[in-house]
Specification:
The chain has about 675 residues and is of the alpha+beta class. The protein has 20 helices and 25 strands. It starts with a helix and ends in a 17-residue tail after the last strand.
Length: about 675
Amino acid sequence: MRNPILWLALVLAPLLAQELPSYKDLDIPELREVQVPEIAVHRLGNGLTIYLLEDHELPLVRGSAMLTSGSLNDPAGKAGLAALTGTLMRSGGVPGMSGDQLNERLEFIAASVETSFALSEGSASFSCLKENLGEVLGIFSKVLLEPQFAEDKLELAKVAQRTAIAARNDQPSEILRREFRAALYGQDSTFARKPEYASIAAISREDLQAFHKGVIGNKASLAIWGDFDSEVLLAELSELFEGWQGSVRSTAATLMLPGGFGPGGIYYVEKTDVNQASIRIGHFSVGQLHKDYVPLQVLSQILGGGFSSRMVKEIRTRRGLAYSAYGVFVAPPGQRALFVAGCDTKLETTGQAIEAMLGELERIRSEPVTADELLRAQDSILNNWVFKFDSRGAVVQRHMEDAFHGLPEDFLASYKKRVSEVTAEELLRVAKEHLQPEKAAIVVVGNAAGFDRPLSDFGTVTPVDISIPAPAQEALAIDDASRARGLALLDAAAKAAGGADKLASLHSLKMVGNFKQGPMAFGMTHYELLPDKALVDIVTPGGAFQMIRNADRMARVMGPQIDVESMSEAELAAENLTDPRWLLGHFAELTIAEQEGVLTLEDSHENRVEVTFNEDGLIASLATFQDGQDVIRRFSDYREVEGLRLHFKMEVESGGQVGVTLEFESAELNPELDEALFAIPEQESP
């Protein structure tokens, strides 16, 4: 038979005619009981609890510590203190070793030591080879007990914090997480507090030392697992941590947690540069010690705990509104327990998604779940139980965490047994009692101009302001003598550049060269049509990339992708301060102060720039504070073009590193440029 397809059909025909067995008929054996190894618990007289679990399979040792304190304990006006303390405990060095020396030594022996503080608690960890355990434990104990908080590392960490502040509104998911918490606890709550430029600037080394002292004045727990002898290790730990001053009971600040379900309402965060809406719905709930906690976890699995959940089936599968959706009860440590539901959807289906989620919440409160749903949820929870104990580290850390948070010793065992006992009638009861969608807060991040229906259809809307307060600035020390010195420097720079008349005669400019970023270099043409139009045209392997400024709009264009944003009057003024030619033609309009060789200029919007000059009196650098960090533009390779001296090289340094370099090869003064060159393309409708 020469036809292979016909031959295959004849062979498979008898097989296909047979009735295949259903997966429901498979005989799946009962899961074996998880064997949890015994953990040795030791409580030192100074309040430190130690959990040890030996594992001699590999010559490795790991440890993890839990500390009672976090950003909720940041003093008013110094939000960000806990985060900086966590960073500096590790990077700021210990007695006899700087932070850099610590890095080099730990890297050399393939070890790690890390510290950090989250919202309500801190953590520290180490990892090393068995042969280096003594040395690494010595470093680990010093990091916890004797951090040096080096000033230079504090300044470096502050730069990172300022950068994070500048970027905190970039991701809708981060905005949603932050503002949902603020909606529930209140904007004035410690739970809604976040670092600002002013609070970071206010933090000193002494503040870090005081916060750290409070940490080691609280209870703490340390878990260690791996290849060691427990008796030998315990003796060593007792000596190393003799200086821990903690008490058995925590002395951390008491957190004022609100009662009830929460304030409810609709909260809208405008973000116009996205094509999706990010939605979160929820309210306060009950914690792990409540009698209904386990049934609520089963309810979570049915409602929104996975791809077989009701939320996913309705919102993703049936309606096609989102890739995923969720609705779960959670109990984060140190906070009120929550019910949280959410999804991301297209702008034009925002109302439909909210309505669908609220509909599923009402449905699970009004009718019993099916027997199949209940069994599948219980099986899912129990079948995943083994993964809570898939390593020695997971076992000992879970044991430590439960004890640290005040859970009873039999919590895990009773939890598993309780899951098997939950009934459909019980789930209907707890849903009615603990799920109250009419009292929920609904937070939406997106562009309301694209929504399919107004958010006011769901209740009274509260707009949320997420603007980032500008960093506070000390007033310039201005006097006649200081201004006169500054004017003399700027007047000399204008003359060195070609004189005021030559600067004033410049109405357009074309420069050709290269745009360099790291190891990559691309051809570039720069056009200017004064006073308010500019175009940078860059040729990349992926196609042309353009940056266009036209009056009060700025655009980035690459192929069909167009990103346009409007610039405020203050932003336009700040842009001018970064242009040497503009400065030399308009410095008389600015506030000028020269102190100890530093020339500072300030405009009417309180934008500032620090100016330095080269040996020829020309502008060498302009330093500004942008997007949370210091940005320095350095100008060099000045060349004369038709009587005007222009810089042919500019380096942009941010965070101490040069990110972008512009190098020009030719320049043309006052070419004829059509205004259409600077037209910003229209964005296509989605």
